[in-house]
Amino acid sequence: MNLANKLTILRILLVPIFVVVILSGIKNSLLISALIFAIASITDFLDGYIARKYNLVTNFGKFMDPLADKLLVAAAFITMVDLNLVSSWAVIVIISREFAVSILRAIAASSGIVIAASKWGKAKTVSQILAIMMILLNIPFSNIVMGIAVLLTIYSGYDYINLNKSIFKNMD
């Protein structure tokens, strides 16, 4: 197993640790959770960079990296709903978009089509990570960044579907 895939596995392993810490109620649990989330988010950048730079792209990585990202972000937002740090409707929008785009990618893959991440999808990811970090660290205006993350989530979902609507026309 190469380094990029090991980083992806590390990110997945950090998810339950993040959840336990954020829900533990221990002193500074939000700060510790922010640190764990930051480390996990950095592995997201590093695994992709390493895989591309050193030609270590694998089928395992193509499947597990986006799954690890979705697990991390979903776990963060769901636990933050439980702690009344974010609104449930916003998290429902975010998770629904992830399901929709994942299903779109699966349908495309069944026809041999690969849907690469778009600039809007990347902007969505960055805004979500930033919103989560700002909320965990209780940084002012985090609600504005969360609103931007929701808007980018909606638009990037629309963009993926609009750019790939031909996939639906070819369905039997």
UniProtKB/TrEMBL annotation:
Pfam families: CDP-OH_P_transf
Function summary: This protein catalyzes the committed step to the synthesis of the acidic phospholipids.
Top EC class of this enzyme: transferase
Membrane topology category: Multi-pass membrane protein
Membrane spanning stretches: 7-26, 32-50, 71-93, 99-117, 129-155
Gene3D superfamilies from the UniProt entry: 1.20.120.1760
Keywords: Lipid biosynthesis, Lipid metabolism, Membrane, Phospholipid biosynthesis, Phospholipid metabolism, Transferase, Transmembrane, Transmembrane helix
Family recorded in the similarity comment: Belongs to the CDP-alcohol phosphatidyltransferase class-I family.
Protein name: CDP-diacylglycerol--glycerol-3-phosphate 3-phosphatidyltransferase
GO terms assigned for molecular function: CDP-diacylglycerol-glycerol-3-phosphate 3-phosphatidyltransferase activity
Localisation: Membrane
